[in-house]
Design brief:
By secondary structure, the chain is mainly α. The chain has one domain. A three-stranded mixed beta sheet has the order 1-3-2. A hairpin with a 2-residue loop joins β2 and β3. The chain is globular and about 40 Å long. The N and C termini lie far apart (31 Å).
């Protein structure tokens, strides 16, 4: 896998910066569809607005300027939510504290599945956007304080004990 240089962190990687077909293939493994919205349109199903990704049913909606961390975060909400919430999904993924941590952990792992992204770049982008972890950075949280998130993902068979995605949704 090619790693993106970490010296230009002023802006987050967007869908325009990567091979969108790689993202489409990753989401397809979870039964999700990536749908592009035109550059001047609001993104339907976006909880945060602006260029942030949206969720409606099994569709992840985004524009070319949507950050990769946003696409992965919303996709991981879909993956990590239970079947009943997934059935009525529109905009607000909901979930509790443990699930949110699982979502953050999983999005970091899935970044390694995308050429030209990788976990180091994704964690930097998460910090730039404003993800907040008590150790002060995403990388420190992931390395030193995310055992509960990892255990949660393993308990629901979303990842295996080697931190590899199982490509299964939480049921």
């Amino acid at each position: 896998m090619t790693q993106v240089a970490l010296d230009d962190m002023s802006t987050a990687l967007t869908l325009a910066d990567i091979d969108s077909e790689a993202m489409r293939a990753l989401l397809d493994r979870y039964g999700m569809q990536l749908e592009f919205v035109t550059a001047d349109a609001a993104i339907p199903g976006s909880f945060w607005g602006d260029s942030e990704a949206g969720l409606i049913d099994d569709r992840l909606l985004a524009r070319a300027d949507t950050p990769i961390h946003s696409v992965l975060h919303e996709a991981c909400h879909y993956i990590c939510m239970d079947t009943s919430r997934r059935a009525g999904l529109h905009t607000n993924a909901g979930g509790d504290y443990a699930e949110e941590n699982g979502v953050c952990y999983l999005q970091i792992l899935l970044a390694d599945q995308l050429p030209d992204v990788g976990r180091a770049r994704l964690m930097q982008d998460m910090d730039t956007w404003g993800y907040s972890f008590r150790l002060g950075s995403t990388a420190r949280w992931f390395a030193e304080d995310a055992e509960d998130a990892r255990a949660w993902l393993i308990d629901f068979a979303i990842i295996d004990t080697q931190d590899q995605p199982t490509w299964h949704l939480r049921s």
